[in-house]
Predict the 3D structure of the following.
Amino acid sequence: FLAGARVLAHGHASDAALAALARDLGCAVNQLVPMVATRQQEMKALRDQLAELEGEVAGARVRALYEATPPDDDGVRRMIHRASDESAALLRLMAQAVAPLPRALFLAIGTSPPAIYFGTSNDSGVDAGARLKPALAAVGGRGGGSARVAQGTAPTGEALALVAREVRHAG
């Protein structure tokens, strides 16, 4: 019976896959379900821990930039960060870390893809989303955000540099 052979072959392949998975996880086949559930919980805890650590790194980097950037004539510290290998998540967290600082603007420019992250402090007088969105649209880019944090992309690095110059001198 031809269909029976296919079913048996599929069953053997499934058994082999389960045995390989159990061997990789260091457990018996009948322990796979609880083992996978445990590993998922462990991974969630590690992701949460990573997010917390990324937040701490972002805050420390922004505070260091803040301290190293003198205020301009109107008392605002205009920080700029050219990203090298930081993740988009870290750059977004850095932009968010600016909100509680006194009189500050923060720009992070990523290169692949050309992206910009803009954060403003509560007392800067600048609405990040309202400032960034039209500047990006003017160069064919897209983006937006809230009053404190905005982000977007541009078609080229040169277009992004124009946007950065415009929003950096906001306020």
In short: Strands lie at 77-82, 104-111, 114-120, 142-145, 149-153. The CA atoms of residues 21 and 29 lie 8 Å apart. The longest strand covers residues 104-111. The chain is about 55% helix and 20% strand.
